[in-house]
């Protein structure tokens, strides 16, 4: 009898064993796989509330150079970018009339001066200041001095000099060209004194004031963030664009160029010692602010009370503890108690 039923019993045990393995595999298959997310820890930091705008970098000192008289250009920079020193001649204009007038004025002044000195040496009596002034008039020295200064001024107008140390930023004429009074010759700019010009609407402009710190991102410098200071705030709103001009002064940075695009964030308020998380960690569910915290590999749905925000961070007043991991991406379709895995 035992030999007859033994194969049957073994088969029953085998079938039962296979059934248990199948159930376990089915349970494993039904258990959801952890979802990949990114997360950061809530930390104590400073919140900088800002108003932001995009503008252009420019030099705070630009000297427009224009011709003051008619003549031929006899000196001009070969190209832009050439360094110049204060008082250095940038453009020269030949004018025979001004040169001849200066020469004649110099001769007349020297003759009058010789006559004045002769009269002074032969004057009988005390040579008081009143007497000297009378002799300057009678010898023509006073008029000769005025004429000489006028001739010198006209001659100086034939050479255009730099008003400060800088670089040539524009050349509009070349040697040999004939120019006239008012003709734009070029310009000089100061590369050590850079600024950003931006425009804020009426409400944002009201929050700005000279001296406020600012963060300036420049794409052409690999999105480097520079520090600046608000130099001026326009007291007038431009009715055409309903905005006012704000100028932010920058420190000297190698490679920065006028005309480059810059994004400016003017700091209007500073809040220290705040528990902060990235703004992207916050979701809105049922008209309330929510974050997902990771605990033991699963999500923990938290309602939070938020405070001030700025520069990508937001302060959390209630609902979160320092050091807790909050999910920053991959959380839009998550539910409470869902398994997750943090990825880079």
Q: How would you summarize this macromolecular structure in one to three sentences?
A:
By secondary structure, the protein is an alpha+beta fold.
Structure commentary:
With 344 residues, the protein is an alpha+beta fold. It folds into three domains: 35-49 and 272-342, conserved putative lor/sdh protein from methanococcus maripaludis s2 fold (Beta Barrel), CATH 2.40.420; 51-60 and 192-269, Efflux pump adaptor protein, beta barrel domain (Elongation Factor Tu (Ef-tu), domain 3); 71-189, no CATH class. It has five helices and 22 strands. The strands form five sheets. The chain has a six-stranded antiparallel beta barrel with strand order 2-11-14-13-12-15. The longest helix is centred in the N-terminal third of the chain and has 29 residues, at 2-30. It is elongated, with a radius of gyration of 40 Å. The protein starts with a helix and ends with a strand.
Please indicate the percent range of residues in DSSP E strands (runs of 2 or more).
35-45%
Tell me the number of structural domains.
3
List the strand order in the largest sheet.
Answer: 2-11-14-13-12-15
What is the first-to-last residue Cα distance?
A: 67 Å
Q: Characterize the largest beta sheet: strand count, sense, and whether it forms a barrel.
A: 6 strands, antiparallel, barrel
Give short descriptive properties of this protein:
alpha+beta, conserved putative lor/sdh protein from methanococcus maripaludis s2 fold, elongated, 4-stranded antiparallel sheet, 344 residues, Elongation Factor Tu (Ef-tu), domain 3, 6-stranded antiparallel beta barrel
């Amino acid at each position: 009898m035992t030999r007859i039923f033994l194969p049957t019993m073994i088969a029953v045990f085998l079938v039962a064993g296979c059934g248990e393995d199948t159930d376990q595999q089915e349970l494993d298959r039904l258990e959801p796989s952890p979802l990949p997310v990114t997360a950061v820890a809530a930390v104590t930091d400073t919140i900088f509330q800002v108003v932001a705008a995009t503008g252009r970098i420019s030099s705070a000192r630009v000297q427009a150079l224009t011709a003051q008289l008619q003549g031929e250009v006899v000196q001009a920079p070969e190209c832009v970018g050439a360094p110049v020193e204060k008082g250095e001649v940038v453009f020269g204009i030949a004018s025979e009339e001004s040169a001849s007038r200066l020469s004649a004025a110099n001769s007349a002044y020297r003759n009058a001066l010789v006559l004045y000195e002769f009269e002074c040496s032969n004057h009988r009596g005390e040579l008081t200041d009143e007497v000297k002034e009378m002799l300057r008039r009678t010898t023509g020295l006073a008029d000769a001095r005025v004429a000489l200064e006028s001739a010198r001024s006209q001659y100086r107008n034939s050479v255009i000099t730099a008003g400060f140390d800088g670089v040539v930023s524009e050349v509009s004429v070349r040697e040999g060209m004939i120019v006239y009074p008012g003709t734009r010759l070029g310009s000089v700019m100061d590369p050590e004194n850079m600024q950003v010009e931006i425009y804020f609407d009426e409400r944002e402009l009201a929050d700005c004031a000279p001296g406020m710190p600012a963060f300036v991102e420049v794409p052409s410098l690999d999105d480097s963030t520079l520090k600046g200071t608000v130099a001026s705030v326009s007291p007038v709103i431009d009715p055409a664009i309903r905005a006012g001009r704000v100028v932010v002064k920058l420190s000297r940075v190698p490679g920065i160029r006028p005309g480059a695009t810059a994004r400016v964030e003017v700091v209007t308020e500073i809040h220290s010692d705040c528990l902060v998380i990235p703004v992207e960690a916050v979701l809105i569910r049922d008209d309330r602010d929510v974050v997902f915290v990771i605990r033991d590999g699963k999500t923990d749905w938290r309602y939070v009370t938020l405070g001030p925000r700025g520069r990508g961070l937001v302060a959390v007043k209630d609902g979160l503890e320092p050091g807790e991991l909050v999910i920053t991406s991959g959380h839009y379709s998550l539910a409470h108690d869902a398994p997750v895995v943090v990825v880079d």
